[in-house]
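Quick one, tokens below. Sequence please?
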């Protein structure tokens, strides 16, 4: 992960601000928490990396399906890593359709995104936004924003959607996942979506280009690389598949068939 930015306020009406990736993501999924600079930047990115906006929507389709599945299983607590802005049917909104008292802790490393997200959820009981590096699992779990919102003696669903491919070191990624999962009791879940270049040469090119500071080159992995992350968990449904096509009932296609560019998996602690 990256070093935390200094905490500073973000003025949503300040069109001179540079593009913000969380707001670009919000624009891609049809949200309104973005500025003209983000919309223009999104169009530029799609010229360099065609389908980037579709990737954002595919991550959201995956997380929505997972939250619905966990809610049906009785899970009413969620920890989302690399959460961005809680907009457009985000976790607490979707979960509370089934469990009105669902509790959610969001984690993001970008200070401006966190300040914006906190304004969006202000007044929401049982919802917090933590400014932290999701790769520092011990710090995340020990923070008041998590420990005072989530009861780790009960099942929790951990969403690592579109975040672990920014942890370049394989050992560090595995260690972070294990710290999170070791804290979970039976009945808890883990969901991962992760970029892959399977059937997507453009994603391989994007991962190896000079990003110039506007975003961060992802580390592409395949299921064999990530399988150790699921130690102690049983895979739910179809296993590693195209993330936007994941459903709890198998079968589901892989990204080599759909060219989604995303692996997705859901696992459960028995």
């Amino acid at each position: 992960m990256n070093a935390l930015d200094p905490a500073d306020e973000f003025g949503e009406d300040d069109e001179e601000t540079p593009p913000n990736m969380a707001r670009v993501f919000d624009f891609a999924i049809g949200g309104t928490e973005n500025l003209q600079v983000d919309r223009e930047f999104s169009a530029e990115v799609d010229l360099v990396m065609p389908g980037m906006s579709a990737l954002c929507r595919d991550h959201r389709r995956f997380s929505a399906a997972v939250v619905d599945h966990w809610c049906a299983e009785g899970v009413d607590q969620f920890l989302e890593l690399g959460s961005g802005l809680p907009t457009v049917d985000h976790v607490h909104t979707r979960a509370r359709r089934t469990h009105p008292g669902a509790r959610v802790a969001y984690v993001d490393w970008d200070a401006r995104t966190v300040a914006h997200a906190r304004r969006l959820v202000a007044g929401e009981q049982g919802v917090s936004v933590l400014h932290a590096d999701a790769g520092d699992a011990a710090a995340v779990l020990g923070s008041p924003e998590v420990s005072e919102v989530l009861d780790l003696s009960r099942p929790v669903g951990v969403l690592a959607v579109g975040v672990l491919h920014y942890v370049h070191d394989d050992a560090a990624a595995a260690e972070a996942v294990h710290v999170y999962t070791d804290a979970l009791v039976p009945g808890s879940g883990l969901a991962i979506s992760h970029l892959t270049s399977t059937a997507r040469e453009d994603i391989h090119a994007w991962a190896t280009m000079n990003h110039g500071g506007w975003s961060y080159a992802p580390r592409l992995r395949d299921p064999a690389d990530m399988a150790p992350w699921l130690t102690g968990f049983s895979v739910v449904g179809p296993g590693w598949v195209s993330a936007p096509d994941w459903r709890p009932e198998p079968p589901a296609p892989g990204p080599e068939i759909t060219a989604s560019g995303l692996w997705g998996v859901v696992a459960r602690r028995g």
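The radius of gyration is 17 Å. The longest strand covers residues 189-195.
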